[in-house]
Amino acid sequence: MRVSLLALGGGTQATWTEQCKQSLLRAQCIVGAARLLENLPDGCTQRRVAATKPQKILEALQGAECDEAAVVYSGDTGFYSGCRNLVPLLQAQDIPYVVCPGISSVQLMAAALHRPWQDWLLVSAHGVQCDAVAAVMQGKPAFFLTGGSLGVPELCSQLTDAGLGDLPVTVGENLSYPDQRIVEGTAAQMQRETFAPLCVLLAEAAPQPPRRMPGWPDAWFIRGKVPMTKRQVRAAILAALNPGPEEVFWDVGAGTGSVSVELAAASQGGTVYAVECEESALELIRQNREKFHVWNVRAIPGRAPRALEDLPAPDAVFVGGSKGKMEEILRLALKKNPAVRLCVSCIALETLETVLAFCREQGLTPMVTQLAVSEAQPVGRLHLMMAQNPIFLATVQCDD
To answer: What gap in Å lies between CA 25 and CA 21, rounded to an integer?
Structure first.
């Protein structure tokens, strides 16, 4: 038996390739989603098996007892298609197969908009979890396949909740069908609309944060009267935490959000949860998020550790303020992720001893660094070195 893996494009026969049409007519058994099997052209075999799971498709093929079989997929076989999961099963059984590509929804959308798509970020939200905010922060338009629990309204709600309600988006509904519809608007508008199940979403690139090394000038930040981690200390914190792509960060006692902002800008697709109990500080965090376009910062009101309990497990945690709950905060972070990277800033010796005692109890080996920064300030015709308060940084499980 030889199997043809056929991509049926947008769904209508007008988008099928001639190769796919001829393969369908030759097939003695056709396997695929029920929606696709119901719309095959005249002349195709009536031996049709509805199946979408790779193992079920393989079983249907093995039971077909024919020379020519076909498996049909929507869109293109190379674009988030179930084809990729069936191929290894066919190879393991030494079943010959051929892959026939088709016109994908991204091509149909680009054609409808008269735009090229080679610079789009292609993302699937079809039956899988998807971070729309991280996608639009990559510096290019983001194209989303939608489906399951993440339709257009849900993806646009993610964007709106992150402060991107004004981001231009375009919805492609029932592409290639007679009732095709293109709807343009903002994320805030589209989150309130209802669309057909066959939809795709194109979101334009979000404004980008500054691209520079850690330790942004203090004067860049909106500060108010809330204490802020200073530039040199901030640079040391980021070096200790070593933010990586798509990681989760907690900034506990976030203050103005200066550490959160730099963590968000340094991580590619990561999410920073800025936890703060003072409303005035929370407002500053929101303002700095808007100013620096770090849409992946999420301001979390409340006191730690209670405010941390429902957050995703962190890859790295910075504690700038604990309100006397340092041990509980660190214990919860380790419970959620035993391999978490920790960094705690301490002004008081008692706070440092609390962290060291916790590390001894947990069998952790902290690295303690003291930062004593002085900066020249003019006094008349002279410049005197004015010292900031010494800071201890206690870090655990950080890369050297």
So the answer is: 6
